[in-house]
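Here's what a typical entry looks like (Lrp/AsnC family transcriptional regulator):
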Amino acid sequence: MTAVQGVQLDVLDARLIELFAEEPRIGVLECSRRLGVARGTVQARLDKLVDRGVIGGFGPDISPAAIGFAVTSFVTLEISQRLGHDPVTAHLAAIPEVLEAHTITGSSDVLCRIVARSNADLQRVIDQIVSYEGIRRASTIIALAQQIPYRTLPLVRSAAGGEGRAPS
């Protein structure tokens, strides 16, 4: 999904996003009570944030390690330019361990974040990735420890003018 360019956030938007990020199961009524605004205001703001692509979902944040996929790695792929990105993307999307893939600039064409159950299982996943004829070369980097988890709240706070709660 491509986000809309130039979406403006205000302090209430930032506080609303932060509250739902911290407590995704909170109801609209409780959210309105905590923020001190009308329920209709909260619902309208949420709808607007979803419609503009700022909020992409309210689903659970799954930890791959907690369900047995303790190894995280990043793989860059060089692909056959003749075949293009779409067939490679379809191949990668069919592999459950591929968590995300991005086309990139530089010496490689695609960057993937993948997970595996072990280093030996990582080899299986990489073999599955490179089995597609449109992928010419893969280079893998194994993550040893996550120093900063994927996060967007500091960015939301900054976009809203830096107001709101202090970074955690």
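The domain at 64-143 is CATH 3.30.70.920 (Alpha-Beta Plaits).

More examples are in the samples folder.
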